[in-house]
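Task: complex structure prediction.
Instruction: return structure tokens for all chains below.
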Amino acid sequence: MEVKSVTCVAPVNIAVIKYWGKTNEKLIIPLNDSLSGTLHTDHMCAKTTVAISSRFTKDRIWLNGKEESLDNPRLVACITEVKDRARNSGKLTEEELQWNVHICSENNFRLAAGSSVIGRLVYSLSSFFLLSVFFSVYALATLYKIDGDISAIARRGSGSACRSIYGGFVQWITGTNPNGTDSIAEQIVPASHWPEMRVLILVVSDSRKKISSTSGMQRSCETSELLKHRVAKCVPERMTEITKAILKKDFETFAKITMQDSNQFHAVGLDTFPPCVYMNDVSHGIANLIHTINRIAGRTLAAYTYDAGPNACLYLLEKDVPSVLAAVNYFFPTDRPKGEYYRGLNVDVTSVPKELAEVKDLAQWPDNNALRYIIHTKIGEGPQIVSETLLNSDGLPKRLA
Amino acid sequence: MEVKSVTCVAPVNIAVIKYWGKTNEKLIIPLNDSLSGTLHTDHMCAKTTVAISSRFTKDRIWLNGKEESLDNPRLVACITEVKDRARNSGKLTEEELQWNVHICSENNFRLAAGSSVIGRLVYSLSSFFLLSVFFSVYALATLYKIDGDISAIARRGSGSACRSIYGGFVQWITGTNPNGTDSIAEQIVPASHWPEMRVLILVVSDSRKKISSTSGMQRSCETSELLKHRVAKCVPERMTEITKAILKKDFETFAKITMQDSNQFHAVGLDTFPPCVYMNDVSHGIANLIHTINRIAGRTLAAYTYDAGPNACLYLLEKDVPSVLAAVNYFFPTDRPKGEYYRGLNVDVTSVPKELAEVKDLAQWPDNNALRYIIHTKIGEGPQIVSETLLNSDGLPKRLA
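Output:
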């Protein structure tokens, strides 16, 4: 049996200018431009194998070893569009284009962190299913030998995931074409431009049921007056300013805009009716700590940003990782085993500066389990094709849940 | 020794359209109109005696039995303005106008609830000192026989307190005069217009250090883009709509605007840099509960509103108090003694509706002490002159701390 397959490893990204709201729900055309850093795949990534064969009797998908239904309209839209583009390029035969597709996707963060964390961690509550659509698109595009931009296809899987098509810092521009063809991701700088940039992800304990970002966005568009002002005035100015800051490696400006935009995104959530509340007391406690350490240092050591969930993502420079982590550890103490608590890049944690431990109005968090764990990572490259495959020679998952 | 004195009892108010930001810090001229309900003095009030005498050697002030410094510029401004107005009216002799003033103020909520609660409860973090300036102004105006509007003087003591000069529902209009003379409070309807209106104040446990509303407002004016849009567009529309709703006794509309405006005020706080966060997880949990019971009932049972602190104030109609309180008690259980926990008007708490106890995604709050106590009150009248005095015949407090 002939099986043609491609496997890719794809990164996640953390937005510094947030995407919130669509002008077209079906085509996933965003209300405003957004911008993110792509994280290194060493510490968080998804691996996806896509395969086609004349013997496959139907399209099938397995996520983390469990078969899922393929009747999701977003996935169907992506597969259809990939095939249409492939047909136009003429690199596959019409027969091959008729073959059914098998998709198998696994993520290391999910395996490492429990089933629901990735959703909240990186893409909020868009399900891993939708993420996998994006991961599949990259692999499918390779398999079907598609040239040119594929972020417009990936976008239809999971909006913000389309920025993961490139490494470094990436913008997703809204475009002006009503059919969404120019709503695409573009790389601003590769990862090598700002090699000192680091990211700490503080995974916050939380048990509340959350509003999915898809329905939260819809609700904001319908009810938030402030969202209109954000889209019309604030985001365009910030996109220009933060792009300049990234090009100049001006961390102070980058950090300030990052924090302001995160705050404004959550402000719009609160202005929504009923409100969409994603940050919790621990999230706000971390933000307050970051403002405090920046004030005491007399310069900006770190910037926080929060997606549609309580976890804090800190952007900071390599030289400041030890002291920021020391402050986090001092004010959010943990009793979890060190090997389980710290993940990703190694780091030597210095002791917390005396002046910080003595700050009035900043007390150690009373609960030793406010943070579940911390991932230390950096900016990395976009998706990569790898040789190891998740499907066996029959096109079935090597590993089942 | 001749001592002329006046004692007044003055109410507190809870805004439904929030005041946030000034165009003139010194004159306390607000960025936008605001609107509040005045609460009945039976359950929360401050009593203030002001006295003048030829024998008083200097101006003095006692708050809750403790002498405080009189060098606060707001208080000095108020006393000066009262005397100027009195001089113009000619009802006191020039000699009497030269006499020094003694002010003594006590509040029942503070005595009942611990020193810091009233600040957060009613006027956020404006101190009781500033509140007392307002209370003093009313009594001083009576003592000095001032005619006409005195809210413009009271405003200079504590901005939002000026609305407490009237009972019922009261608006504070920004005015257009740069000197603030037309930035005054006006009654929309007296308490008798909507006698079914009730207020539940859920006092939320909290230990965080807060940003004072004075400095929070300044910071918002300097850094929040969204505040501009709120002031220019959202508040004027809401003032018109909620006034109509109050006149028509249209609770659904009144409640929706109240909740939206509270949310928007906190959204602006979050959009401020660094952010001003006043609500906590319990506050958001209460808001979520209110949305849920309203949804299940198919109509609006209650509206929440939050000032610059975590306490929830619920506006609701008399007929719905038992079921709303039942829901609050079920989802925020307490182990405090009933007599200490429930304050104000009596109420029979019905059992929580079965369909509510079974709502998915709505769990009982894990901490039995999330709420400190609950005040049940209603809309009441403005300040009243009473005969009982807080000062003895020497003009000194009868009760010292």
